[in-house]
Structure formats: structure tokens, C-alpha cells
Amino acid sequence: MHILVIDDDDRLRELLKAFLKKNKFKVSTSANAKNAKKLIKEFAFDLIILDVMMPDETGLELLQNFGNEFSTPVLLLTALDQKNDRINGLKSGADDYLTKPFDPEELLLRINNILKRTNFLNKQKIENLRFGLFDWDNNQKKLNKNDQYIHTTNFENDLLTALTDNQGEYLDRTELSKLLKVNSNSRSIDVGITRLRKKIEENPGRPQFLINARGKGWLLRGVPFKN
Q1: What is the dihedral of CA 87, 89, 94, 98, to 10 degrees?
Q2: Which domain holds residue 141?
Q3: Range with the poorest average pLDDT among 15-29, 62-76, 175-189, 201-215
Q4: pLDDT (mean) for 58-81
Q5: Residue 78: pLDDT above 90?
Q6: Are both 113 and 216 inside the same structural domain?
Q7: What is the CA radius of gyration of the chain?
């Protein structure tokens, strides 16, 4: 699970990073909204921990600017006297909030609860998935990059569909072969993955979206959204 921590407090940001890594999370950090936007476009995060009070663009403004398209769960960090910010944050789409100062164990419990709810909701049919500059329409089986159509073969479409329908989960060769109705002993899956990576990855040798893990299989990292 990959978590993005957005907070202008250097000390707290580093403490959160160390604590989350200790609890087996992958962690990226940002000190401001501008840099956070770049990271959100580049990576598919499972959760964002967002401080409300930041210079230039506040956490609430960042959340509101993303609008309804943004579906990554958000945990707000607020001060005790920021009741209105907590209410506005929840109205803007935040999933939960935690007031400073907080107990790290409570933070961990809230994170796990959010991720459990998110994983349950992600079991529902995903119609659109965004990864980097690409949008995959899971109904029409169309891949776009910056709103420009990218040609994909029927087999590549089937791969994208299988990985999107099982968003957040690794699919091994046997599982993909069953879903795509091909012989698990053939090289079809490997060839399809390689060709697809050449189309969606900036560096196919070091993929950011269509990733694999030894003994687990392949996973497509993306953010579901609604048109």
C-alpha cells in the first residue's frame, strides 16, 4: 500500500514517514500542494494523509480542486479548533479526519479502517481507470493518453479489463490465463504484458503502473474515476 503524506511541518512529515514505513507501508511525502499534485499525477496512491493548514494552497483547497473525479481516500489532519475545516473537508470528499496532536496507534487504526472500506468498494465494477497520463474506459475498451486515442489489440484490451476488474490485487499467470482463456503454459501473457508496458510506461523496464511481484503476479495501479 502506497501512502502520500502532505504536510508543511518537516518534523511531523518525517515522523509520519518513519512510522508508516515501520508498519510496512510505502510512503511518499510532499511539503506543499503544488508538489503533491505532481506526485498524484505520477503515482497511484492508496491513501493520502492531508494537512489542512498549509501555505499557498490549503489542504481543503487542494481537495476541492480535484472535484468528483478524485477517488483516492483522504485522511485530514486538523487542529483541535478547526471544527469548520473538518466539516468542510468531509463535505469535500475526505473520508476521515484526525486532530493534532494524535496518537500514532489511532492514526494506524483509522488508516486501516479507511483501506478496508475502500477495498470493499473497489470490488464494485470500475468503469474508468486513470494511471499517469492514461485513461482506460472499461466499458468501451478504449485507452486514451491526454484525450488522444491509443490503439490497443483485443488481447491488450482483455488484459486491461482483467486487471481493472481486479484493481488493487495481483493476478498470477494461472488466474490471468483463465480470465483471458489462453493456455497458461504459453507465452501469451508475458508477450501481452510486455507490449502493453511499451504503450503505457515511460520506462517499460521500470514500470510504475503495470507492476509485478515475484510469486504474486501482475497488478495495474490506477485511480478509478467517473466521467
Answers
A1: -70
A2: 128-224
A3: 62-76
A4: 78
A5: no
A6: no
A7: 19
